[in-house]
Design goal:
By secondary structure, the protein is an alpha/beta fold. The protein contains 6 helices and 6 strands, in the order βααβαβααβαββ. A 6-stranded mixed beta sheet has the order 3-2-4-1-5-6.
Length: about 210
């Protein structure tokens, strides 16, 4: 059986500053650091001692800090992969959220959604975002390790899960799997049928302790 644990980074400075995240390189807050430690301990409790574990993370500071807490408990260094970053919002990143809200062009209810232009210079389309995260996931899942941890962002969690269940890229235009900051999503693939399950989406019980 393969088990994949997907951690969304906890509270970061862009959350409390009210600015756009994306590729803006914010840091975890003190509360976020505590949540990252609790997520790491929850993973350590789930995964048997002596089991080989691989750890992958977006290279942005807030995800790297989260991954380092987990890596310290498992004795592994995170593999930093920029393809696991959040969607880029171009020139909006680091600006007040209100600045983006005033300019953002939402995708249409009917019609082209993946290559839709959101009206923000330098921003990624959803198609570009999905394809780069899918490429990262293809490389991760090609590895034979039975326990893998991926640390990413709240938005990119949707793409990770879509990749896991084999959703075609062209079908992701409406996909949205929501999870709170600091959550853990648990994914399993059995070794007989090789079916892939979403066992738990965005679990936060560990944050209540």
């Amino acid at each position: 059986m393969r088990s994949l644990y997907v951690v969304t980074h906890p509270e970061a400075t862009h959350h409390i500053d009210g600015v756009v995240g994306g590729w803006h390189d914010s840091s975890l807050t003190a509360a976020g650091e505590g949540a990252a430690r609790r997520a790491a301990r929850a993973l350590r409790d789930r995964i048997p001692e002596g089991t080989e574990v691989e750890l992958f993370s977006s290279d942005l500071r807030r995800t790297r800090q989260t991954a380092e807490e987990t890596g310290a408990l498992f004795g592994v260094d995170p593999v930093l992969d920029p393809r696991l970053r959040e969607k880029s919002y171009g020139e909006a990143e680091g600006r007040p959220q209100a600045w983006l809200d005033e300019r953002f062009v939402p995708p249409p209810a009917v019609g082209e959604r993946l290559d839709h232009d959101e009206g923000i210079a330098g921003a990624e389309t959803k198609a570009a975002w999905v394809r780069r995260v899918y490429a990262a996931m293809d490389d991760i899942l090609a590895r034979p390790c039975g326990h893998q941890i991926v640390v990413t962002h709240g938005g990119s969690l949707t793409v990770v899960v879509a990749s896991w269940i084999g959703m075609p890229v062209e079908s992701t235009g409406r996909a949205a799997f929501r999870a709170a900051p600091g959550s853990i999503t648990v994914l399993h693939e059995d070794d007989y049928f090789h079916n892939r399950q979403v066992v738990e989406l965005g679990g936060t019980r560990h944050l209540d302790t």
